[in-house]
Each structure stands twice: as C-alpha cells, then as structure tokens.
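Appendix B. Chain record.
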Amino acid sequence: MSDAPRVLRPDRRQTYFDCVDLDGQLAEDHLARTVWAFAETLDVSRLESAIKARTGTPGRPTPDRRLYVALWLYATLDGIGSARKLAELCGSHTAYRWLCGGVPVNYHDLSDFRLEAGPFLDDLLSKSIAGLIDQGFVSSEVLAVDSVRVRASAGSGSFRKKETLGELYEAAQARLDELRREIDEDPGAASKRLKARRLRAADERVARIKAAKEAADKIEAERKEDAKKTRSKKAKRTQVRASISDPEARIMKCDGGFKPAYSAQIRTDLKSCTIIGVEITNRASDRGQLAPAVADIERRYDRRPKQLLADGGYDSKSDIERLYGGENPIDVFCPLPGSKGGPGDPTPKRGDGPGAIAWRRRMSSVEGLAIYRKRFATERPHAHMRNRGLTRLMVRGLEKVKAVILWYVTAYNFQQRLYLERMAIA
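Structure tokens predicted for this chain:
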C-alpha cells in the first residue's frame, strides 16, 4: 500500500557490539555500592592463601575473593541461594554486572566458595562485633538465645533402622569388593572406565552407609545419656534411625511436623538486636545449650553476659546452676515448666540448687516476666533470614550447613549495622 506507515521493527537476530557504562547504570545510593564498599575493607588473605596463580609464576588469574564475598552477600540480601542463579544474574542483572565489573564468574567456583568461606565468615563475625562493642553499638550484657530449625537436604525416607544399616553396609561392601575384582581382571579400557565410575559410586555409598551406622550409634548413646539424666525408659522403647544420604541430619520438630533438620543456635544482643554468636547442632532439644552459648561469647569477645534470655525449651537446671556459680553469676530468664507464659510457682523442687531456687523466684515475679518478654524483639533476625530463603538446606553435613547459615547471619548483621550507623547520625 502506498500510504502504509514506515516503521522500524526490531531485528533480534542481528549481532552487534554494545558500549555499556556499568557505573552510569547504577544509582549512586544503590545497595550494591554499599556492599562493595564493605567488601573492599575486608582482609581476605585467609581466602587468598589457596590461590596458586602468583605474581612471577605461570597460571591464569582468578577472580578477587572480595568480589565473591560481595556477590554472595548481595545475593543473600536479595534472597538468592543458588550458585547457578547467581552466575546467571551476573550476566543479565545490572547490579550483579556492576559488582563483577567485567570479571567472568561461573557457578561451580561460586558454589565452592560459598561453602569454603565458612571459617572466614565465622572469624569475620567475631571481629566485626568486637568493633561494634568498642564503638558502643553492641553491649553483650543481655544475651538472648534461641534456635532456628531448618529443613535438611535429606528426605524422611532416607532414614533406616540401626539393624537395616548393618545389612545395607554389608551388601554395599560386598558390591564394592566385586567391582574391584572385575576391574582388576578386565583388560578392556572402555569397560574398565565404566566400571571405575561404578566403583566410585559404590565407594561413596559404602562411606555414606558407614557414616549413617556411626550416627546411629551416636544417637543411641545420646538417648541413653538423656534417659539417665531424666530417669526415663523412653530411649529403650524407641527405634534408632539414621539417614544414609545425610548422616548428620536428625529428625526434629520443624515446619509443623517432625522432619530431618538442623538447629541453628542464634545468640543475639538485646541492645542492638545484632547476632553476636552462632553455632549449628543436630540435637532435637535445646536443653543444655545455655552454657555453650555463654562459652561461645566468652571465646569470641572475652566478655560474660549479665543476663540470659531464653524460651522454655532451654530450662536445664544443670545449665542454670553452672551459670549462676562463679565470680560473675548470670541471671537466667526462662519460663518455669507449666507456667504457660505467666508467673510460675516459686516453691523449690527436690534437687534444686541456689541457682535454680533464684531462677524460680525470678520467674514468678512481675519484674522477671517483664525482662523475659524483651526477648521477643530478637525474633527479627530469624524472620530476616527466613524471608531471604532460609527454609530448606541444599547442602549436607554440619560444616557445610554452618557455612550457609553464616552467610545469612552476615547479611543480617550487615543491614543491622547500616541501621545502627544511620540512627547514630540522626
């Protein structure tokens, strides 16, 4: 048609070079810039010790470890927990591309770094909080202790009885021995490589089942010890089970039911609502975790809290007595059994020591309950981590689980520090 409009239609099949000003595409007050400024201040020599490419020697240079820290910190704040997704965003999202600054990254290296950085992040937690204590932002005098239970990678169907684990181990070991004999006797190279892969798989299965057997023995010993302390026969009636896919995972109350999970023991400063300590356990009960919490704070900061706030699951009299003794006694604020959030019975019970007696009197008073209720303010760190994807773990083992959770702790403390600094300026 002679009067048809002339328009420019997109041709997405064409290839062209694009001039991009990364710095101009990101706002001056963007969070990614703040994250990178923080990463630049870090001493990453501990992370760089494993790098083989050195000045004056052959080898391909590797991405700066500060870049990996910045990428995972920003990704955690953004609710990204997948290395593949992070690598994809580094090529398509403006903020991630700005952080990379043209440095190529791949998901495999990102995934490895996320787990290997656990000890570095644990040390960073101690050093950063120590700095906040010196500045007066954190006091550590009133410590709130609570647990965050996170679904493990293992499925409920991976748990086997102790007797079944023994049978599976024998069968797996027999299969492994058979494959080894076949590889030694087979002259065919192609067939030998195939059987070598099968051998590795069989070897890994034997190792997992062996670890599950050891975990079952450990669970049985823990149950007997708990039964001895509580004078209960329950441990003799229940069956011991362990997972063949994640031997360190345990069945515990989680997400409205009983599922394979890990327990993150979070220690929070009540004044600043900042996480100042964290440890990962696979114990289904929180009893016995008060004394380790105080020991963790003393190890990190050489300080001892004056008050300890915890929910009803932490009411271990042995812990309360241990913390009450010494030159610097700690007042524990934890609900009395059966009190249902209200004042409890202050009457001493058989076996109570001076610490337990003081605890009962404290938690039967209006003043004691008022102090205890301040603990609920420290639930915010848990919600922050949940809202950014800490709902189910995709790694296995206590060490790797701790590394993942430390990223969430670091991300929360990073935002909390920004908030505290803004409040100080205001």
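Further analysis of this model is presented in Appendix C.
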